[in-house]
Structure formats: structure tokens, C-alpha cells
Amino acid sequence: MAQFIDLYGLIEVILRGLTLVFEAVTVGGIIFLCFCALPEAMDRAVLIRCRKLLRISAMALAVAALGSIAVTTVVLHVTTDGFRWTDVTQTSFCRAELLLVIAAVWIAGAAKIIERHWLVLPALAIITGATLTSHAFARIDNRSLLLFCTGMHHLATAAWIGGLPWLLITLQRSNEQSVWVTTQRFSQLAMTSVVVLVIAGIILGQQYVGSAEGIYGTSYGVMLVAKVVLLALLLVLGATNFRFLRRKAAARPILKTIVKRTVEAETAIGIVVILIASSMTSQPPAVDLTDGRASLSQIIDRFTPHRPRLQTPSVTALAPATPLNADEAKRFGRPLSYALSAQPVYNGAADIAWSEYNHNWAGICLLTVGLLALIAQMRHIRWARHWPLVFLVLAVFIVIRADPENWPLGPRGFWESFQVPDVMQHRLAAALVIAFAIFEWRVRTRRSTQSWHALVFPAICMVGGTLLFIHSHSLGNVKEELLAEVSHTGIAIFAIIAAVTRWLQLRLPQQPPVLGSIWAACFVLIGVLLTFYREA
Amino acid sequence: MNARLGTNRVYRYARKLGVFLICLLAALSASGHAILKECLPAPHSIVSGPDVTIRLRFNSRIDAVHSRLYLNGGPHSQQIEVAEQSAPDTLVGQAKAVTAGEYRIQWQVLAVDGHITRGEVPFTVR
């Protein structure tokens, strides 16, 4: 149970992310079916798929919201003296989540049998429920304004991002005339949504961030910047589609395929943006964090390139391993961190040097990968196509050096080390890097017979970038951690751009050469960020 | 390459990727968002006993009924009864018969948006 309570914050973020994603898809679907689709011209297969997706997303939303109630109830029951199970029904968050659950179940059950326009009612109930579990509901000042803007923000997100999967279904199966009218309508709806989203976002940003210092000096602000950058990327893709649609291009098969592929990329980026938003809801707004902010001069100083650290300190110079339990305390000869006799262990110069060395060498690996990938695109230099193998070197490097308190360098054994979250994350990262290397090398050298192997590249970049975004929110807003987080957010943005451009390169009927240069350039830029990464 | 990548297959893989992503999220950590804006007694302050008024103001609306205050340290620990809220962001309580010594106020609050946050404030009673 103690471990469950420790995991509460994490589970809460996951459930919140799922709730927001399924909320957007469910409400977006109803908006799409009511205002964009042409029911009379709709192919029966499309209608069946739409109903199926609506049922699935609504039920998933209900399950996520119920999960959220359950988790919070368990934690309250265990940690709050005198809290009875039924007491949760008296809390405002539970009532808001229940509103969401009832509305979602209504949609799932009635999607087939009632007029679509009646579904607008439960859709509005979902938006209301989600708004009542947001930051806005708990604010002291300007609460009404914040609630209204949050509701509009959710609604616009659902109409635009939540509508994308529905547009994809329509693009795949509908007849040409229906596709043309539907995409035109969706395009207009998306443009209106973007305007609402931006206006509401500016007001919310002004209230929650408050100042320029709040943007660059806090985790909340840095994640907001990431959201804005990805929103800009979405707008670029949306504008590309809009350009095609204005020419009635959707009616032409090849351009219809281009629109489909771009919408796929938009959908993936949209989900990442929603997941970033979910992790922001677990953070205090920047305006409330007045202590421990990083100043602009500190950020500039940290990002001014210095000579990379290419010599490692000795492992014996590092701070001693922190025991996790009594057994380890005995073996390591050190008190437990929470024992009265324990002195806190801070990162010394050697620890910082160790970490900088790791990041800088990883950067050199990425720089090599990016440059070789660029060279490989000049067809006469064939040996450069083996660039994915450099990632194997990086993976071995991560496993050996990322966690010196653990196997193979530290006193904690291989299996025991999996209970340390950081180690778990690093090993997952190494596994992803190895998978990337093997699959992409086989694709490059034409050893692969499976076409899906090529998709491992964009998938891993998308997953890795998303994890970096979500990972970057929880470090307590301590200044040093924030400074590290800024560079990691930059890496995450480049990873997402690399994923999208590679996806489009694979999926578009005509493959513009510039896409290959963009993802390779992203690797180069990630390499540069890591090569000059510093922690002091 | 494109011709071989059927759309249905791509979506099948996308679904698998979604499940994988959720599993990976489980390796990450998170934090709550209620922040203590003002505190009485102030952290590391020295106050007079035997009765100590505790007043905590947060950055968000707090559900006082489902929030708890505890006083730990000294010869004994006690749960402090939370008084009726005078302001939606504030918890007030009274610790009684507190002898001289070092103490920590341990608080756990439920914000009205459903986030649970915990913290503690060390202080000394003379």
C-alpha cells in the first residue's frame, strides 16, 4: 500500500492523460458527426466505424474517470483518519468525475439509437465535468473567467484535435463528394477552434504564468512553451492540408492520400500535446512558484557552449550509493536516507562531471548519427547507411554509465537495480535505442522483409520525445533541475519533429527529399544540445 | 515503401504503440500541485506554548473536511482538528498542551479539483 501511495501522483497523471485524450476524441466525434459529416451521403461502413469508435472512446473515458475516482478514494481512505469509502461522494472532484462518467456511458449506450444532435448534451456534460477537475476550479482569483476559458479550451481541443481521428475514417472510406464537403466543413471548424484555443490559451497563460520570468523560469512555463511549439507544428501541417482543400484537391486520389497522411501526423502530435497538458495539470501554475526560479542570465549562461567534457572522473570519486532498504544499508555500510543519523548526500563536483561526460559523449554519438544520415542521403557514399549501428554504442554506454550506483559499476545488483525509477527509465531508454538501431539498420541495408520495420524509427522517436516531455514535469521546480529540463524539452521537440518527418517520408506517396534532411538535421541538433550540455 | 504499408496494418501498429506508451508512462514520476503560500508558525520559527495556533494558506481552494493536520515530535503526536474554513484556501487548527521541543506540522490536503498533496513544516516550541 505504501508503494501505491508513492505511485499515486504518477497514476493520477496517467489517468488524467487518458481522460483528456478520450474526452477530446469522444466530444470531438460528436462535434464532427453533428457539424461536419454528411449523414445522407455517409457510406454505411464509415457510419459503423464511427459508431464503434464513439462507443470505444466513450467507454474508455468512463473507465479512466472511474479509475481516477477509485485511486483518489483509496489514497484518501488509507491516509485520512476517519475517512469512510462513501465520504468520497461528498467531494467536488468525485461529483465532477461522476458527471463525466454518466455522460460518457450515456454516449456509449445511446450512440446507435438516438439522434446525433441529442449527443451534444452529454458532450457538454463531459466538458463541464472536465472543467470542474481542472486548475480553474481550485483557483481563488478570477475563477469564473478561468472556468469559462478552460471550458472553451477543452471544447476547441475536442473540435480540432479530437475530430482528427474521425476525419481519417471519413477520408479512408467515404465517396469523393462526401469527403470533399466533410473536409471543407472540418477545415472551417478547425480554423474557428484554433482561434478559440489561442484566445483562451492566452488568457489562461496570462493568469497561470503571469510574467515572462514564469515562462522560462518554471517547469510549468517550459512545458507551456513546448505546447506552443507543437501547436505551431500542428498549424503548419493543418495549413498544408488547407492549401490542398482550397484547390478541391481532396477529390483527387493522390492529393487525398497526402491529406490523409498529414492528418495521421497531426493526430499523433495532437495526442502528444494533450499528454503534455495532462502533466501540466499535476504541476502548480508558474504564477504560484515565486521561489527557486531560474533567471534568464542563468539560462543563457548554461546554454553558452563550452568545451565538452571528454574525460571521466573516477567512479570512486562519486558520492556513495544511497541504500534503499535496511539490507542495502548493511551491505553499503551507510544509514538509510530517512534515518536520523543519515546526512543528505548532495551531488558533488565529480557527480556533475560524471553526468556531463555522459551527456556530452551521448551528444557526440547523436551528432555522428545525424551527420552520417545526412551523408547517406548522398547516394554515392554507401557506407554511411550503416549509421543506425552508432546507436548500439550509445545503448551500451547508457547501460554501463547512466547509473553508477548500480550494476555494472555500483554495489546494487542487476535485478535489484530495477526498483530504482531512474535506472528503470535509463534501461527502457537503452532498450528503445537498441530496437531503433536494429530495425533501422535492417531497413537501411535492405535486410528487412517486413515493411512495418521502417515505422519503428518514427514510433520510437515519438515515444521517446513524449516520455521526455512527461518526464520533465516532476522534479520539484528546483532551479538546477529546471535548467536541465530546458535542454531536455528542446531534445523532445526535435525528437517529435524527427518522428513526424520520417513518418511523412514513409507514408506520403511522393517522398520529398527535404523530409529526410529535416529528421537528420533534428538528430544533429539533439547532438549539439547534448554535446554542450552542462549541469554547473 | 508506401505501397507496402497498408493503412489498416499501420493503425494496428499504432494501437499497439499506444498500449506500449501507457506502459512506459508507468516508469515516470509526478507531483501534486497545492503549494503552501503562508504558514503559521513559520518554518523553523520558535513559538510559545502550550497552545499553538496553526494556520496554513494554500495557492488553491482546499476541501477542509477531507484534509488533515498532524503535529509530530516532542513527547507525543496529535491530530489537530481543522476548524471551519474562514477562507477557501486556508486551514486553521489549534494544537493544545504542547510542551517545549521540536515539532513538525504534517499536512495533507485535498484540493477541490481532486489533487492530494502532502508536506510538513518544522518549528520549535519553547
Q: How would you portray this structure in words?
A:
The complex is a heterodimer of chains A (536) and B (126). Chain A is mostly helical and 536 residues long. Chain A has helices at 2-35, 44-79, 92-110, 120-131, 135-138, 143-160, 164-173, 176-208, 212-217, 219-246, 253-281, 296-303, 326-332, 349-376, 390-401, 421-444, 456-471, 479-507, 513-531. With 126 residues, chain B is α+β, with helices and mostly antiparallel strands. Chain B has one helix at 7-25; strands at residues 36-40, 46-47, 52-58, 68-73, 78-80, 90-95, 101-110, 116-125. In chain B, the strands form 2 sheets. In chain B, strands 2-8-7-4-5 form a 5-stranded mixed β-sheet, with no helix packed on it. In chain B, 35% of the residues are buried. Chains A and B meet through helix 1, helix 2, helix 3, helix 5 and helix 11 of A and helix 1 of B.
Concise structural overview:
The complex is a heterodimer of chains A (536) and B (126). Chain A is mainly α and 536 residues long.
